[in-house]
Amino acid sequence: DAGITQSPRHKVTETGTPVTLRCHQTENHRYMYWYRQDPGHGLRLIHYSYGVKDTDKGEVSDGYSVSRSKTEDFLLTLESATSSQTSVYFCAISVIRDRTSGGAVYNEQFFGPGTRLTVL
Amino acid sequence: DAKTTQPNSMESNEEEPVHLPCNHSTISGTDYIHWYRQLPSQGPEYVIHGLTSNVNNRMASLAIAEDRKSSTLILHRATLRDAAVYYCILRELDNTDKLIFGTGTRLQVFP
């Protein structure tokens, strides 16, 4: 599982409150990602990071901010939660892998267990 | 980002081969074709990827059309554990390694 954890795993909050989700990895991988998943949709990229203090926006970044002050932690913040942000949030890391049968190395994303967020 | 098109759902019987198609007619020359799957109540997991040549690993095989505008993920003998949503993703050769997911194909496997 590449040592990736998310906290909390479940959260219920009220509209207008701030919420921070934490993604933690134990292996010092450079790239980290936050996705959300809603019924009937695949995962959609919110923000990603390519190093400490280096972050960029994904497809659905409005209403979200991120921070990465340490390699191992990538925080996703909803400054003022809305009901439309009710979703399952997945964190991922990108790991460099060797092809077992030879050839070029490649990047594989490993995903955390997800955080189910409900905004009432 | 180039788009992929997959059937919404497919069905298979246990121990039969499954061929999951993906169309990507706007693929660029440097896009890699990645497949991930998502088991119920879990995050996605990597299955296989390729560029031009067919690829095999312990989980599956990937057959890529000569013009690269389509590909097929092949599960040689489906098991109940293979019931999942399978995502075909085009990954750009850039320095972000980000994945843009579509809606995927939900595979049901019957005993």
Q: Return the structural class of chain B.
A: mainly beta
Tell me the number of helical segments of chain B per DSSP (H or I, 4 or more residues long).
0
- In which order are the strands of the major sheet of chain B placed? 1-9-8-3-4
Instruction: List the chains of the largest interface with their residue counts.
Output: A-B, 27 and 21 residues
- Uncertain ranges of chain A: none
* Total strands of chain B: 9
- N-to-C terminal Cα separation of chain A, in Å? 32 Å
- Give a count of the beta strands of chain A, DSSP E runs of length 2 or more: 11
Structural class of chain A, please? mainly beta
What would the principal axes of the Cα set say about the shape of chain B?
Answer: globular
Write the layout of secondary structure elements.
The complex is a heterodimer of chains A (120) and B (111).
Chain A lengths: L3 E4 L2 E4 L5 E7 L6 E6 L5 E9 L2 E4 L7 E6 L2 E6 L8 E11 L8 E6 L3 E5 L1
Parallel strand pairs in A: 2-11
Antiparallel strand pairs in A: 1-3, 3-8, 4-5, 4-9, 5-6, 7-8, 9-10, 9-11
Chain B lengths: L8 E5 L4 E6 L8 E7 L6 E6 L4 E2 L4 E4 L5 E6 L8 E8 L13 E6 L1
Parallel strand pairs in B: 1-9
Antiparallel strand pairs in B: 2-7, 3-4, 3-8, 5-6, 6-7, 8-9
TL;DR?
Chain A is mainly beta. Chain A is built from no helices and eleven strands. In chain A, strands 2, 4, 5, 6, 9, 10 and 11 form a seven-stranded mixed sheet that branches. A four-stranded antiparallel sheet of chain A has the order 1-3-8-7, with no helix packed on it.
What does this protein structure show overall?
The complex is a heterodimer of chains A (120) and B (111). By secondary structure, chain A is mainly beta. Helix content of chain A is 0%, strand content 57%. Chain A has strands at residues 4-7, 10-13, 19-25, 32-37, 43-51, 54-57, 65-70, 73-78, 87-97, 106-111, 115-119. In chain A, strands 2, 4, 5, 6, 9, 10 and 11 form a 7-stranded mixed sheet that branches. In chain A, strands 1-3-8-7 form a 4-stranded antiparallel sheet, with no helix packed on it. In chain A, strand 7 and strand 8 (73-78) form a beta hairpin. Chain A is globular. In chain B, a hairpin with a 6-residue loop joins strand 3 (32-38) and strand 4 (45-50). The termini of chain B are far apart. Classes of the chains: A mainly beta (120), B mainly beta (111). The A-B interface holds A 31, 33, 35, 40-45, 48, 50, 56, 58-59, 90, 92, 94, 100, 106-114 and B 32, 36, 42-46, 49, 57, 85, 87, 95-104.
